[in-house]
Each structure stands twice: as C-alpha cells, then as structure tokens.
C-alpha cells in the first residue's frame, strides 16, 4: 500500500505558514533542519534547541530510525521483513519484528472500526489498477473478482506476541497507508528521549507531527489542503499530528483516468471530490484515519469520528463545501477569527485504542 | 533586457562552438593561495574579474592550473586585455549586463577574433545547486516558514537548464553553468557544503553532458592551504568523483531519447520541462527551426510549447500519422485535424486521431508541472519509454550513445546520497552491462534480463553516481 499512499501525495499540499509573532516567533535562529529520503518520500525534521550539536545528533538518530523502519516495512524491497512475511505467512505462522506486528495490529483496529474500508490487504487490487493508471487496459470484472478473493483483513491472524498467519493463499499486505505515520511517531519518541521538545516532523507533507513549538510560539501552524481554494483551513499542532488524503486527479492528457485509492468493497477506484485532513494525538492514527475517512466519506466518516477521542476531521470538496467532525484540535478557517468547534460528541468509544501508547509526554 | 541577454548568449555561444572542450569541472576560487593542482585534482581554476593583483594568475599557472577569468559582458574588453597579458587560458563571460542590442555584439566580435589564443566560454545563468529538497525551510524576520513545491521528493537539477540552452544554440556544446551553494539551516563550525554536495554536483554535470563551475568557499580554500586535516578529509572524499568525471567518455555522444520538446523560449515552458527531467523522461529540446525529419525519427512523442510554421506543422502531422504522439500545450491555433471529430473530448483534454497516431490538446496550460510530467510518462507508456527507473524517486538517469553505434552509456545520479537499489529498464537488447562507480569496484558486470525488447537490471547500493556501459547485441538497435 506504499504505492497507494505515496501516489496520494501528489494531491497533498500541507504547508507550514508564517506565524503571527504571538504564536511562534523564534527569538533566535538556532534551528537544525535535516531531511532523509525514505518510504518513497522525504522525511524532514526541524528542531529548535540551545544545544545545536545535540539537536543535530537527535535529528540524525530519528531519521536513522525512519530508514530502519523502511527496511522492515517496505513492500518494494524484496529483503524487507514485510516482503518476507508476504512470501511465507500463507502457509504457517511466521515470526515478525515487533514494529511490523504493532503496525499491523494498529491497522486491524482501523479495519474493524471502518467495516473494512481501511484494509492493508488491498494490495492485489491496487496492483490491478496501477496497470490501468499507467495507461493499460481497465481491469475486467473477472480480474477484480479474482483480486478481491485475496483481500480481507479478517483473513489476517495475529498470534501474540510476535507471529502472523494469512488465511488466504494470495494475500499480500501493504502498510503504505499507515507506515509513514508509525515512522513519524517513532521519530518523535527518539527526539523526546534525547531531550528534544521543540520540533516538528514531516513525512512528505502527508503527515506532520508538531512537538512543542519554536521559542516564542505556542504551536506549529499548518495550512491544510483545500481543493476549492476557498476555505483555507489551518490547524495548530502541539504534541499532535495532522494527515491529509485525496484521490488523485484525472490525467491532463488522457482525461478520466482511474484514481489510485481503491475501495476494498467494490474493487474499484474511489470516486470523490473531497480532500480530507485529520488531526490525532499520534501520527499513526492521523495517517490511518485520513485514508479511512476519505474512503468512508463525510457522512459515515463523521459518525466514525464521533466515536473517537481527540480526533478532528475536515472534508472539503472542490466547491468549498466542508464537513467538520470530532473533538480534537480545532481548525481555523479563512475569514473566521476564532477556531471552528466541530460537532458535539456523543457515544464515543474508549478513544483510539492504540493511540495512548503513541502519545508523547 | 532579456532579449538582449539572449542575443548575447547566441552570439557568444557561436564563438564557443569553435572552442574545444577544456574541462568538466571548473573550480572558482579566491585570488589567494591554494594547494597545487596535483594535490587538488583540479585542472581548471576560475578567478572573478576584477582582479587586484594579476600575479595571482602566474602563481596559479606555476602550480599547474589552467586559469580562466570570469567577467561580465561589460567588463570583457578590460578583462581580456589583462587576461591575455597574464596568459590565462580563457575567458568565461556572464551575460548579466544589459546594453543595446547589436552594437554591443558588433563591438565585441572583432575583439574575440583578435584573441584567438584564448578560449571563450559563456556562463549560462540560472543554475542551482543540485540537491534533493523536501520542504523549503526558511527563517524570515524571526519566523520559521515551511512550504513545498511538491509532495514528492523535489530534485533541484540543472538538466532542463542545459537541455534548453542546447536548444537555443545546439552548436555551443558543452554548456557551462554555475550555481551558488545553499547553506541555510546548516550547523556552524562544520564544513559546508559537505563532500556529498560536491560529489553530486560533479556527477550531475557528467550526467547532463555539461561543464560546471563550482565555488570553493574561502574558508575551505584557506584551510586546505593551512593543511587542516578536516579540510583535507573532506577534499579527499571529493577527489574520487573528480577523477571519475575526468574519465567520462570523451567522444561526442548523442542523448538516448524518445521524446522531443519544441520550444522557442524558456520562460513559459521551463518548469514543465524541469519536471520532465525530474521524472526521467528521456527528452531533448529543439527550436522549431531545428525540427527535421531526421530528428523526428528518433522520437515517438513530441510536446510542443510554441507556435509552428506550416512546414513544421506538416512534419508533425506526418509524424503523428505514422504512429507518433504529439501534444500541443496552450495552443489555440486551428489545425487541419480539427476538421474531423475528435477521438475523445473531455473538459481537460481533446484527443484527435491522426493516421496511426494521435494529437493531444490539453484545454489548459501546464498548471501543475509535476502532474503534467507524470501524465506524459503514462501517456507514452512503458513500451514507448527509452529509459525508466524503479524504486528511486531521487535518482536521475540519462543515456548517451555514439552516432553510429547502438552501445549505450547510462549516467545515474542519486540526489538523496543514501544507498538505493535502483532498478533500471532500457529499451534495446544488450549483451553485457558493466558498472563503473567511484564508490566501489569498477568494470563489474551486472546480471540482467531481457523482457519484451527491454533490458532490465538492478544497480545495488547506488549512493551518488554510477556509469553503466551497455554493449549492444549487434542485430538490434538501442534506439527507441
């Protein structure tokens, strides 16, 4: 699913904006900025700290961790633990690294709570449509039916503490819709463990985690994707995360080409005019939820968000119609002087089950 | 003003056309001491005019360097007199000074003729430090600002700059460009740029078949003279790349391409072409006047960014009729094929069938160059692509071959400077694939497979650069 998510990046334009001086005005320019290519995108870290060599070392360590996770979770690298699991878990339970186990466990949580709309086993369908997206013929109904037989999170069995088995002979997992978020959280943990608190971590713009803001500020202000260019949504991050998802635009040269996000239920590309941004206490949660809630759409998605703690979502379509939901970080919209409070909360579940252990101090 | 600068480039470029290639990498230094050429591994040194003390030239020459003087067009008269007296190897002229049109060029022409012992090069403006960028992080007025031109890894490359310069003046090859180091956000007390930045710059110049002028920061120059071990550790990490570059094939190679780009000026089309380069579309750019039947034979697709005369239009119509794809960007002209109903008409694009091929007319100019480049690659398809990479969005690939031989040399540059297993697909059948790299053993034969008329192989652990020599099977051609 790396392809699935990385292709989505084309439509994501999160951007840190200049901040009013009352919000985030660094009193000196002592920051470190490092970047590293991993998981098909560029991970970047900015750290403000009095001890720049320490900040530099911390950023390197955090990015090293991201690269290490890429080596575990990549479905492009045949030697990765994920690829090895995909080759062998059909026949017997296989032992997998803790990071892989945690990511899959987290993914299954979102699969269950979205009635399977979020599904890390959608890889065979993605591959089928990838060929069409590259200019090949559209998959036939028979092709789709065949691929659908390989899909279904219910066929994934996690055997604590560290084993997995597939109950389908053609299943193949892809963590592209959650892996970057997981890596961002791990990087944040490393920064915290090294005493770094004023920083933000950016996974190619699709997921951004803000720790404590730069000196003189109280939050990282992030402008979010707006396909209408009318709403101008922004969000303030402090020890939380935002992720954005959007279906890819039709080709400017070939017209209506299929999008890259596939509905696991039908096996067809999602058709939507929405872009969605989701905030959550952890990047793993915001990353997974952005895909999940895009697939669910604003009506069903808002209902799901209301069952979660500390999560906010905003759907914006190309005409500027917007839907807000959740009790997490408030969104700032153009022309509005104060944060928009999202809808009242009722009937919540006991939070995002895995989120607390990703929370930062 | 732009028009004048452009004319100056044309004029000086015409002179450069008669100039032999002297170097790949020029090092621009301060007119102060520097270790000798046999220690730095550099042959060609650039000093910027005006020079207070011309004896610096003699000193550098005695240390084994060829010395070039860089000056602005307005200073050329004085600089060339002084340079000639001091026995410089040549002049590098920048065209930043506006002046009147032809009189200026006319005044200079005899002067060049009077100094035939000097090599004249024109510095193409607009170069940028080759690097992988993510989001742009800057601090303005004490506020951190972050933005992104792209959600994918953004490569600042000079390929488009060079290809467009080649289109303007195809005879003035190789192009010479420079850039300024970007040291924002770097730690103090650490050498910047680092060795990887130099290595990428040197490797890129090789890959795009151009010459480059690289600045040596004064602090590093002084530290090298002072035998600072840290400075020499850095420089010794650069030297293998200089050496590797100096052994690049010297023959006049022609690029392996399947896509033609027709432009008359860079302004409107630069960013689209820049993104084509970043997405490894194997292209060359030409001006409408250079559009010939022979040229079209090496392409299967053409993107047109400008108006064409009747002759050029007829060539492209025949090109499409024989199976080619022609894309007209931002044109509102009436074409002969408009008399027939389109094959497909949607809000974003109209497609006409012309013989065995098609003409594609997007409804809008290129508003999103990245998507345009991706859409172009998809439209051309795997079968039509002369070169393709997998598993590395941060690697540039270019291919070259001799005019009369199907053997191909590929140049790869990984801007991320961290090892990647890069999968390569090249159109054509080859009997051997040999890897050369400054980062490991050279001359290694790589395993490859042939699939559907393409040769596929993997470069293990490509860190910054490699050259691949593909020996052709004699019965086939590597041309697209």
For this entry, give a set of tags.
heterodimer, A: 361 residues, alpha+beta, T-fold, eight-stranded antiparallel beta sheet, four-stranded antiparallel beta sheet, 15 strands, globular, disordered C terminus, B: 480 residues, alpha/beta, TIM Barrel, Rossmann fold, Immunoglobulin-like, 3 domains, seven-stranded parallel barrel, seven-stranded mixed beta sheet, 29% strand
Uncertain stretches of chain A: 1-29, 337-361
CATH class of the largest domain in chain B: Alpha Beta
Give unreliable regions of chain B as ranges: 1-23, 97-105, 475-480
Strand order of the largest sheet of chain B: 1-2-3-4-5-10-11
Using the alpha-carbon principal axes, give the shape of chain B: globular
Query: Structural class from helices and strands of chain B?
Result: alpha/beta
- How far the N terminus sits from the C terminus of chain A, by CA atoms, comes to 31 Å
What is the beta-strand fraction of chain B? 25-35%
The CATH architecture of the largest domain in chain B would be Alpha-Beta Barrel
Structural class of chain A: alpha+beta
Mean residue pLDDT of chain B: 85
CATH superfamily of the domain at 93-166 in chain A: ApbE-like superfamily
Largest interface: A-B, 54 and 50 residues
- What's the architecture of the domain at 93-166 in chain A, going by CATH? Orthogonal Bundle
Q: What is the fold-level CATH name, i.e. the topology of the domain at 93-166 in chain A?
A: T-fold
> Into which percent range does the helicity of residues of chain A fall?
25-40%
The number of distinct helices of chain A, counting runs of at least 4 residues, comes to 9
Provide mean pLDDT of chain A, rounded.
82
* Global geometry of chain A: globular
Largest sheet of chain B: 7 strands, parallel, barrel
């Amino acid at each position: 699913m790396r392809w699935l998510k990385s292709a989505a990046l084309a439509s994501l334009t999160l951007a840190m904006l200049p901040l009013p001086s009352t919000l985030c005005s660094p009193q000196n320019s002592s920051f470190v900025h490092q970047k590293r290519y991993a998981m098909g995108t560029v991970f970047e870290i900015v750290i403000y700290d009095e001890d720049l060599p320490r900040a530099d070392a911390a950023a390197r360590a955090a990015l090293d961790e991201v690269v290490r996770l890429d080596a575990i979770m990549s479905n492009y690298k045949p030697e990765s633990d994920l690829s090895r699991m995909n080759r062998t878990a059909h026949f017997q339970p296989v032992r997998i690294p803790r990071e892989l186990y945690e990511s899959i466990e987290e993914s299954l949580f979102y699969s269950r709570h979205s009635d399977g709309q979020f599904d890390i086993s959608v890889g065979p369908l993605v591959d089928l449509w990838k060929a069409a997206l590259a200019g090949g013929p559209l998959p036939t109904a028979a092709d789709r039916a065949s691929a659908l037989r390989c899909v279904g999170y219910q066929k994934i069995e996690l055997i604590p503490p560290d084993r997995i088995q597939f109950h389908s002979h053609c299943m193949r997992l892809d963590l592209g819709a959650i892996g970057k978020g997981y890596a961002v959280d791990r990087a944040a943990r490393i920064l915290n463990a090294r005493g770094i608190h004023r920083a933000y971590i950016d996974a190619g713009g699709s997921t951004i985690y803000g720790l404590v803001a730069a000196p003189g500020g109280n939050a990282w202000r992030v402008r979010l994707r707006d396909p209408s260019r009318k709403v101008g949504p922004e969000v303030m991050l402090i020890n939380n995360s935002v992720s954005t998802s959007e279906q890819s635009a039709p080709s400017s040269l070939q017209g209506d080409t299929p999008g890259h996000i596939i509905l696991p239920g039908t096996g067809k590309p999602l058709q939507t005019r929405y872009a969605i941004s989701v905030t959550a206490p952890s990047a793993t949660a915001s990353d997974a939820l952005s895909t999940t809630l895009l697939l669910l759409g604003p009506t069903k998605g808002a209902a799901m968000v209301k069952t979660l703690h500390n999560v906010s979502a905003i759907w914006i379509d190309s005409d500027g119609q917007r839907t807000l939901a959740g009790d997490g970080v408030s969104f700032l919209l153009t022309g509005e002087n104060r944060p928009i409070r999202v809808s009242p909360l009722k009937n919540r579940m006991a939070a995002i089950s895995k989120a607390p252990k990703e929370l930062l101090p | 003003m732009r028009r004048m600068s452009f004319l100056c480039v044309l004029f000086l470029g015409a002179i450069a056309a008669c100039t032999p290639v002297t170097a790949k990498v020029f090092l621009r230094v301060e007119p102060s001491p520097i270790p000798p050429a046999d220690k730095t591994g550099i042959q060609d040194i650039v000093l910027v005019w005006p020079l207070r003390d011309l004896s610096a030239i003699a000193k550098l020459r005695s240390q084994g360097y060829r010395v070039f003087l860089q000056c602005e067009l307005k200073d050329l008269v004085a600089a060339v007199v002084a340079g000639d007296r001091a026995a410089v190897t040549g002049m590098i002229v920048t065209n930043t000074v506006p002046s009147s049109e032809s009189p200026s060029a006319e005044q200079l022409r005899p002067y060049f003729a009077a100094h035939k012992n000097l090599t004249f090069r024109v510095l193409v403006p607009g170069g940028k430090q080759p690097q992988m960028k993510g989001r742009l992080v800057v601090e303005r007025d004490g506020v951190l600002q972050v933005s992104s031109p792209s959600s994918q890894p953004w490569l600042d490359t000079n390929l488009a700059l060079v290809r467009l310069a080649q289109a303007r003046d195809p005879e003035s090859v190789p192009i010479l460009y420079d850039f300024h180091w970007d040291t924002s956000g770097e730690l103090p007390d650490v050498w910047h740029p680092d060795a990887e930045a130099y290595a990428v710059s040197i490797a890129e110049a090789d890959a795009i078949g151009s010459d480059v002028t690289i600045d040596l920061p004064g602090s590093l120059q002084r530290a090298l003279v002072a035998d600072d071990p840290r400075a020499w550790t850095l420089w010794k990490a650069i030297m293998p790349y200089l050496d590797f570059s100096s052994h690049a094939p010297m023959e006049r190679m022609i690029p392996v391409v399947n896509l033609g780009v027709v432009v008359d000026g860079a302004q409107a089309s630069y960013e689209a072409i820049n993104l084509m380069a970043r997405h490894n579309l194997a292209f060359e750019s030409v001006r409408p006047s250079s559009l010939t039947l022979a040229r079209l034979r090496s392409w299967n697709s053409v993107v047109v960014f400008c108006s064409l005369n009747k002759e050029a239009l007829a060539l492209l119509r025949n090109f499409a009729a024989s199976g080619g794809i022609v894309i007209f960007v931002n044109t509102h002209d009436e074409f002969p094929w408009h008399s027939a109903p389109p094959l497909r008409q949607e809000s974003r694009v109209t497609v006409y069938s012309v013989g065995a091929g098609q003409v594609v007319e997007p409804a809008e100019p290129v508003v999103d160059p990245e998507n345009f480049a991706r859409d172009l690659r998809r439209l051309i398809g795997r079968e039509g692509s002369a070169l393709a990479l997998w598993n590395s969005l941060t690697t540039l690939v270019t291919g070259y071959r001799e005019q009369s031989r199907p053997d191909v040399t590929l140049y790869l540059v990984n801007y991320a400077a961290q090892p990647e297993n890069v999968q390569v697909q090249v159109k054509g059948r080859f009997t051997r694939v040999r890897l050369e790299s400054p980062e490991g053993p050279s001359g290694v034969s790589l395993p490859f497979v042939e699939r559907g008329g393409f040769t596929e192989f993997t470069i293990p652990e490509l860190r910054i650069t490699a050259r691949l020599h593909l020996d052709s099977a004699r019965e086939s051609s590597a041309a697209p």
